Amino acid sequence: KIRDKRPFVSRHLVMIRVLLLVALLAVAEARRPLFFNGRPKGGFVNGAIQRSQAAADLFPGQTLSNFTQKLDHFNPIDTGRWDQRVYYNPSYADKDKSSGQDIIFLMVGGEGEEPPKWSGDPKVQIMQYAATYGAVVYDLEHRFFGMSRPINDMKTESLRLLTTQQALADLAYFITVTNQKMGYSNPKWITFGGSYPAQLAAKMRSKYPELVAAAVGSSAPLHLQLDTYGYAEGVQQVLEATPITNSQGKTCPDLVREAFDKMQQLSLTREGRKTLNAQMHLDPPFDDNTNKHDIINMFANIYGTFQGMIQYTYDGRSEASKYNTTAAELCRIMNQEGKDPVDNVWDLNVYSAAVYGEELTSFANNYTAMIEEVKQTDWDLLGEDGASDRGWTWICCNELGAFQTTDSDTVFGSVLPMGYFFDMCTDMFGSEINATYVRDNNSASQVYYGGEDYFDATNVILPSGMFDPWHMISYFNTDESKNLITLKIEGAAHCSDMYPEYDGEPKALPAARQRIREFLTGIVYDADHPQKSASSLSLTVLIAGIVAKLLM
Ligand SMILES: *[C@@H]1O[C@H](CO)[C@@H](O)[C@H](O)[C@H]1NC(C)=O
Ligand SMILES: *[C@@H]1O[C@H](CO)[C@@H](O)[C@H](O)[C@H]1NC(C)=O
Ligand SMILES: *[C@@H]1O[C@H](CO)[C@@H](O)[C@H](O)[C@H]1NC(C)=O
Ligand SMILES: *[C@@H]1O[C@H](CO)[C@@H](O)[C@H](O)[C@H]1NC(C)=O
Ligand SMILES: *[C@@H]1O[C@H](CO)[C@@H](O)[C@H](O)[C@H]1NC(C)=O
């Protein structure tokens, strides 16, 4: 009898657990903003995606499998292994007959589940390049994101294994093993990435130049700046470049400044906060127990709406980024004359949520509740975006910084101080991860990777959109002698060069993609020995000089 009952009981338990999970996930959706610590749902370049487990989700020619990855590359006695997901697509493979070389593109996964598109969709630029150069394409999911889980949970002690150094070593080990397994002769690996993974793609050239021939890093925030106040300046630049017609001659930045001034003033008094409760539909409303974190959290989420629209403005990433979440639409809504500036901000939030398919009726405003969601350490309780938000914030607290404050003079006032992010690191990861830790680790990472002005690599191209606020911490020191090329793409946003082309896209994009192709042509066809051709050129110059001297 007991036996008969068990399945029934356990089935019930499973059902309760599933319901609980669904309820928790629903809550999670409600409390976290669409844009958390700079990261939109789905990650910086991917957009919202569907889990790809089924072969049906894959593109023709593409496979998804597991690579047996090392748990800890820097502990020689550690024998831990785990399954890292990797996409593989040999559709365009066309071994270059002239040199007998294998051209291999490696898309570097980032702070979210890796979607099939980068190694499957023929319209994205990496696949367009793969078709031209006959490249095999791999795409390796980043450790701790998507289904690539090195360890059972996301406790802080487990996250010690989530570092950029481990991620780079994952890529290096993957390349080494794949070269052997596939028997690649004279392989030429080229790493690609957008946003955070663009840093990794580029750093593969500085840290593992023997394995990787070249890197294409789109919108790579190579300066590991702790307090990234410049991001807000970047947003402001886009607003300044967006013309509007206003009967009082106000500009778009004027209108944004007016709204933020007003909201900041209101936040200072109890009466003012009541007004904000109503105008911003705050849930829960500010009351006598409201603390500074709740107030800053409201500003962080409002600022997030501005970030989410500007960062992808006019991108070919999705229909929304082409036509809806654009600087022009943002300025149009902020310029509804005759409406209160704070009401315009509310309208902007409603509009931006609607574009992502969500009907916004209230604005989540409980810092503690938000932190509780991303403080979970269980993969299932966190859910895909919760886990990615937690992992991404860990990388920022532990190494990168990249905290998007309003610590310089911009239209956003001073609503988002660095201290808020220090507290967030501690609240999410424990008392040990305090301001001293975050600052020291960020400094150590800058030293390890070369700091602000120093990036020592050859054969790297770094395109950046100038409408991408992250360009403020991109790297722009072109050095032709090292074939280290940086591109400023006017009017383009975050990673714009990676997406499919579309009619009406920013005018500077085709030329930028053409420059990337020239770079790739150089690598694929005659950059086998780039130093050699450079030095033989200087030898010629030297000989010519000597001859000239002798003739005089
Ligand atoms: C990859 O590994 C994960 C986790 O170990 C497993 O759930 C999944 O089924 C594996 N996928 C394939 C294609 O082997
Ligand atoms: C997005 O823009 C397109 C083109 O202007 C428009 O047809 C569509 O209704 C907009 N969608 C939303 C959600 O505003
Ligand atoms: C905020 O969330 C916390 C944690 O869930 C909860 O204890 C608290 O009551 C909430 N505050 C308000 C004002 O609802
Ligand atoms: C952070 O914690 C360390 C010890 O873990 C301590 O020495 C340091 O003073 C703390 N820093 C701050 C800003 O609290
Ligand atoms: C961060 O700091 C801790 C404690 O000092 C140290 O063990 C760890 O190696 C640091 N991590 C990085 C990536 O610098």
Automatic annotation (TrEMBL):
Q: Is this entry keyworded Transit peptide?
A: no
List GO molecular-function terms, semicolon-separated: dipeptidyl-peptidase activity; serine-type exopeptidase activity
> Signal peptide span per the entry?
1-30
Q: Tell me which UniProt keywords the record has, alphabetically.
A: Glycoprotein, Hydrolase, Protease, Signal
Q: Which GO terms describe its biological process?
A: proteolysis
Q: Which family does it belong to?
A: Belongs to the peptidase S28 family.
Can you name this protein? Peptidase
